[in-house]
Amino acid sequence: ALCEYGVGMMKMCLIAGICLTGIATVLTPSYALVLGTMAAVLELVPFVGPFICTLTAIFFALRTSIMSSTI
Predict the structure, then answer these.
(1) Checking phi first, is residue 67 left (phi over 0); if not, alpha (psi -120 to 50) or beta?
(2) Each residue of 6-63: pLDDT tens digit?
(3) Going by C-beta distance under 8 Å and a sequence separation of 6 or more, which residues neighbour residue 10?
(4) b/e map 43-57, b = 16+ CB within 10 Å
(5) Coil, strand, or helix at residue 44?
(6) 1 SS3 class
(7) Residue from 25, 26, 21 nearest 53 by CA
(8) Which of 10, 35, 39, 65 is the most buried (most CB within 10 A)?
(9) Which band of pLDDT confidence, cut at 50, 70 and 90, is reported for residue 70?
């Protein structure tokens, strides 16, 4: 049972990393790989990990958007 949990968590990490990398490529191409890797790693932390990753992705998206509008 524990082995299946580990395999399931790895699949969730992979899916989260791929999805966030794809979305971040559209929004903030310069940080896409960093955000995707961070999403995959933080997905291992229950409840808090995805929340932290979401906040970080929003921060980078807003930061990039604000910086591009001021330049």
Answers:
(1) alpha
(2) 999 999 999 999 998 898 888 777 778 888 899 899 988 888 988 998 898 888 778 8
(3) none
(4) beeeeebbeebeebb
(5) coil
(6) coil
(7) 21
(8) 39
(9) low
